[in-house]
Each structure stands twice: as structure tokens, then as C-alpha cells.
Amino acid sequence: MVAGRVDPISTINLTRTNWNIKVRVVRIWLMPTYPSTSSSHGIEMVLCDSENNKISGFFKSIFLNKFKPILKEGAVYVISQYSVGKNKGNFRVTSHEYKVIFQFTTRVIPAREDGRIHTYGFE
Length: 123
Known about the structure:
The protein is mainly beta. It has one helix spanning 64-67; strands spanning 20-32, 41-48, 54-60, 76-80, 83-86, 98-101, 107-110. Strands 5-6-3-2-1-4-7 form a seven-stranded mixed sheet, with no helix packed on it. A hairpin with an 8-residue loop joins strand 1 and strand 2. Belongs to the replication factor A protein 1 family. This is Replication protein A 70 kDa DNA-binding subunit A-like.
């Protein structure tokens, strides 16, 4: 990560690949796949920044051992080296046009508590 540079969630789009965000994990949950006979799943989350913008985050079940022990609801992180994808489908937890997709190379660094980032992400 470039020292000190943090991108607002509102600016995230498909034009770059080197986004760095400082966010609070407002909510995190296990997302089963459908049909229910499938054994794979993923983790969905809502991320909120200091401007109270929210974006959906997701990682596949193959990354559970890497990210689940690190990510805690209510904690603040600096996240980088992830992919950006369109936020589409029938189940959209945020109104942001895009979502953060965690990859094996994604960096998740715990950050100090930041009172500027709303605890629950309410408007």
C-alpha cells in the first residue's frame, strides 16, 4: 500500500486495480450457495468508510482459513490488492454499483479504531 493513501469507497470502480480502503466491517455472515445441496459457500460483509459510504465485500469458501480468523465484525481494517466486480443479482446488501472481491493476494491489515467510521453504517 502506498503510505497514507486511502481511497473513499464512493470512488471505487472498474478503471483501477490498486485500490486501498480503510473500512469498518459493519456486518459479516456466512452465505450459503444455492441450491442448498451444494457444499461450497462464501462470506459476505458490509464495509463502511469514514464518509459513511458502504460497499459489499465477498470471499469464496476456499479463502475461509485465510480471512475468517482475521475479519471481525466492528473492527477497522486497511484492505488492498482485491478485485472489483459489478454488484448485481437478486441479493444486493448495498446500493453501491460495485463490490470488493477478496483474492488470495488480498491484504487485510488491522487498523486502529477510527471514530470517524460509523459503527453501524446508518445514515
